[in-house]
Write a structure and sequence with these properties.
The protein is of the alpha/beta class and about 350 residues long. The radius of gyration is 19 Å and the shape is globular. Helix content is about 40%, strand content about 20%. Helix 2 links the parallel strand 2 and strand 3. The strands form four sheets. The chain has a seven-stranded parallel sheet, with helices on both faces. The chain has a three-stranded mixed sheet with strand order 12-9-14. The protein binds nicotinamide-adenine-dinucleotide and uridine-5'-diphosphate-4-deoxy-4-fluoro-alpha-D-galactose. The site of uridine-5'-diphosphate-4-deoxy-4-fluoro-alpha-D-galactose has 21 residues, from helix 7 and strand 8.
Length: about 350
Amino acid sequence: MASVLVTGGMGFIGSHTVISLYENGFDVVIADNLINSKTEVLNRLEQITGKRFKFYKVDCCDKEALRKVFEENEIDSVIHFAGLKAVGESVRMPLEYYSNNINSMLTVVELMNEYKVRKLVFSSSATVYGESEDVPFTEESPLGMCTNPYGWTKWMLEQVLRDCAKAYPDLKVCLLRYFNPVGAHESGLIGEDPKGIPNNLFPYISKVAAGTLEQLTVFGDDYDTPDGTCLRDYIHVCDLADGHVKALNFVATHDDSVSVFNLGTGKGTSVKEAVAAFEKACGHEIKHVFGARRPGDIPVCYASTDKARKELGFEAKRTIEEMCSSCWNWQTKNPDGLPSDS
Ligand code: NAD
Ligand code: UFG
């Protein structure tokens, strides 16, 4: 049976996407080097779906190791999630970020060419829109002026894939620009499991709500926004996962060599509103203080969702309340995250 290769499929977005793919009748093979995920995800996926997915512990930069995956399976399409994603870390470790994110993608496309695999969905990010304040971001908004090496890797890889799609006419690429993925599967068995102290808002709030961290610092309350805090387009990870199924169906049924879609809700939620929604979900106050602005943050970032709705048939369904309650469910069921690999 033809399979979808999900690189980085043990990670936060990848694991939720594996479930959506399975529920929509796709056969899935996962390749992940576990640099930012744990083997336990495979057990959890089995608990949720009843299926033990075929998994290769492999670095996507290692061509010979990854070739085995293409050799041993009938790969029909690839969703490429594998990459490093921490903005702050990318500033401290640019070489690791450029090397891992660029090489893993190049290796995957080289093997796709070799094995005549023609359909690719790539995890890009709203970060490619850079520092522009012209919102909402449409797929036509100017790109570049990224504020960190992580963002540049996404920007560069979009260009690499456009060039590849020109040079290899059978290749069809879908670039998905995610806004702010949050939340967790309704079972509470999988979710976002960051190492150490979280950098992102929702994992941080979850830890404060659980009492593991003392308080949240809200980065800036003097922005030119209705309540002075930054607005972001938070999208439930299960909606995002469904977007990947739509994207795969899109590349299978359209001739576009490159298609680009925003995946967001089209709504901006402020940090204060996110805190209030989380307080409602967990039933108690989230201790927070207001601090300085975080360098590189833009005041407002949300998606235009028109193109995804019209062409992809994608619309995010879940509310900010569901994002918070699923996060809290995941947090309370897994206070210390998933058990580590021994
Ligand atoms: P994640 O870190 O949870 O998942 C990424 C997975 O890729 C991890 O399991 C990691 O072990 C694996 N990986 C990394 N490098 C690898 C390599 N060379 N070979 C094999 N496996 C490798 O991150 P996520 O939040 O699930 O993000 C998935 C993708 O979406 C990433 O490419 C990320 O840049 C992109 N993205 C994420 C966000 C976000 O806010 N979470 C926003 C926009 C785009
Ligand atoms: N924030 C706080 N306190 C915290 C953490 C975050 O106030 O402790 C604020 C930030 O200043 C920002 C908002 O919460 O206003 C969201 O911050 P996140 O770090 O959760 O998310 P970002 O919008 O900065 O970035 C995320 C991903 C990037 C991705 C981008 C666009 O981390 O990888 O969304 O998709 F590129």
